[in-house]
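Tutorial, part two.
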Amino acid sequence: MIPGAGAVWTSLPTAQRRMIASLAVAIVAANIAQPYPDLAPLQHGPTVAIAMVGPWLLNRWPLSDRAVGSIWLFLLLHTLGARWIYSHVPYDDWARAISGHDLSSTFGLRRNGYDRVVHFAFGALLTLPIAEAVRRFGGVRTALSLAFAFAAIGLGSALYEIFEWLLTLFAAGDTADYYNGQQGDVWDAQKDMAAAQGGSVIAMVLLLRRRAARHIGNPPQREGPAQ
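Running the prediction step on this input gives:
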């Protein structure tokens, strides 16, 4: 074990330890009988890295359970999509098994839309953690922290689309269209960024309610001494 790892782990709130552990389990489960083994490292590698360094980051820059829970839920959504490289998430099969109807026919979808859901979740779920971190460690007011989070979501979305494009050019080869989830849509990147910004706007509106906003940046409860 890495020296100090046990102390770092036990210093985290119980809920956060459970979230990190369950994320690790989800990553392992998503790679059992992996249908796209050649692309799995590209899809799951960043999530594995986050799960590994997460305890140290949270020990150094603690966040509330609610903020960590938002990050955790986003990463779970990503892990689910990553198993089927997003373009092939079988949600229509799941819907037919439950209700007898598929979502694509019901909503007139011409492509697999799971990737758009996760881009929306990127904005909707990460606005709070970013705003909380900026308010707590930057000492800014709630409204400014939310504005910063909205801008950060936009920047993060744009940088990710550029990174994804470069990665598919040099690493994904013939599978580039499947890896980046474009599915033949030439405006895919722009729609993804718009989905993320829309999610962030909704999160901001909900958080600006007086009861929700006043808790952004409050120190989380620690269960052990900070390391």
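The two ends are 16 Å apart (CA to CA). In part three we will examine how such features are distributed along the chain.
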